[in-house]
Amino acid sequence: MHTRSYSMHALGLHPLLRRRFSPSSFDSAHELGSDEVDLLLEAARWAPSAGNSQPWAFIVGRRGDDVHARLVPYLAGSSATWAPSASVLIANLSHRYVEDTSWDYSEFALYDLGQAVAHLTFQAQALDLFVRRFRAFDRRGVASEFDVPPHWEVTTMSAIGRPCDPSAMGGPLRLARQRRPLAAIEWRIRSASAE
Amino acid sequence: MHTRSYSMHALGLHPLLRRRFSPSSFDSAHELGSDEVDLLLEAARWAPSAGNSQPWAFIVGRRGDDVHARLVPYLAGSSATWAPSASVLIANLSHRYVEDTSWDYSEFALYDLGQAVAHLTFQAQALDLFVRRFRAFDRRGVASEFDVPPHWEVTTMSAIGRPCDPSAMGGPLRLARQRRPLAAIEWRIRSASAE
Fold this sequence. Notes:
The structure is a homodimer.
Chain A: H1 8-11, H2 15-18, H3 34-45, E1 56-62, H4 66-71, H5 77-80, E2 88-95, H6 109-126, E3 130-134, H7 139-145, E4 152-161, H8 182-185
Antiparallel strand pairs in A: 1-2, 2-4, 3-4
């Protein structure tokens, strides 16, 4: 069972946002077609970015293919227990520097990658897929394995697929974790005290 | 008219992604209710973040209210021409440092703020609202005006409302800008040449 915590406002959220959660286990029998994978990347592709800089790239491994087999050894002990059974593993890359310099490619490279991964996640939800993003992997190892040059960073990974428990997908509200209350994320205009 | 550029894949995107665009002008007669504003913040609130760190906060001004009037003077010359007519202006804050230190609060503060702003944008689209995010404003000025302490950053702003041209909202595909092709954002596994 998931802990459910929500406000009245949460009930008004778009279903794809309301039902979103990050599975802790994936159905190892589910496979994702290449058309669906392309659609996920297409969603990321059309995300907005500062000056249309598009500071993102993706290493995509479908379970059973060569790229997937090359990604799995770089998972950390924690993610290695659950991530390989997802239908797809994606390494999310951000364009951090101008090539051969220490100059930022864009002040918003990480922010924009976050937007792109969110867009991909939204499209995944529309396909009844769920996404768990994580950092528990060997960044340098993945970069070396796929010859990622130093001006790009392997920032996060996403595991995408069907959760093990299909009933987890059908609920009216899928807010598995606590969040700070709405009043706390709207900046306190009057008190303006530090957090 | 918008320049339309799309692939076959783009036609399969969820309508809220397919129709999303960043308006260059907003209908100054449109107003947003406080319930709708709360729903936008609720969408951001439930975004995922590294270790559930939720490194975001929002300064929200509805056109006509005091916060809006205090935000507008800090718009840059470019954004001052179009942003004040949006129904809502939001300053998007990221929790960059542990208070009174130079330690990162989270390696993913910007990435996670990007995700939260994207979630807010999806919810806006679901309410037939459109969002333009921008950097053209005086960060220090806004921080000072609202007593934002140094461990928080005023990272971006969002203008939210109805576009001036209502016909811009109805199209089947709303992809106003060019993007790199799909093949370019999937990391070239074999050639792996630097970009």
